[in-house]
Amino acid sequence: MVFRLIHSVRQTRVPGPTLANLTEEQLQKIEELRVKIKLDEEKVEREMERQQVAMAGRRMVELARLATRVRNAESASRIDGLVEVALKGLLAGLERVMKMADCVRLKTLKGVLEVLTSWQCVEFLAANSMLQIQLRKWGQIRDRRHENFAAFIVL
């Protein structure tokens, strides 16, 4: 998204003109960064796929079946323990994916800011903030529409 934002700001000159005037060297460094980040994003995607496969794996499905079939208290507590251990493993894996993604985002932001001049950084951060605000507003409008629709259906 960062690289699309830079491209968009360069073309529209909003919030200001300095990003439109990137040097060839800056453009080359940003492109090199984009390629590196793409590789990092693919690593995160592969890890997320691995976690999704683990969630839908045979062991987890069998555990879910057992948990729904258990009748007596002794078996239930044993199954609960197994479920808890399995969930801890899954949550640790998902936490690892989230940390990997956070690192990629931070690396992207730091890399872009290192390439830009001070004024370009200000412009870029302003554009990024404007985009985040617009996305949040759009999400709130969308949520309100869904809430209104849900209320209408309930009536």
Report what the structure shows.
- α2 runs antiparallel to α4 (73-115) and α3 (58-69) runs antiparallel to α4 (73-115).
- 6% of the residues are buried.
- With 155 residues, the chain is mainly alpha-helical.
- The two termini are 40 Å apart.
- The model has no long low-confidence stretch (mean pLDDT 89).
- 87% of the residues lie in helices and 0% in strands.
- It is built from five helices and no strands.
- It has helices spanning 2-12, 24-55, 58-69, 73-115, 118-154.
Helix content: over 70%
Shape: elongated
The overall strand count is 0
Oligomer: single chain
Please outline the helices and strands.
Elements (H helix, E strand, L loop, with lengths): L1 H11 L11 H32 L2 H12 L3 H43 L2 H37 L1
Provide a compact summary of the structure.
The chain is mainly α. The chain has helices at residues 2-12, 24-55, 58-69, 73-115, 118-154. The mean pLDDT is 89.
Q: What labels describe this entry?
A:
mainly alpha; 155 residues; 87% helix
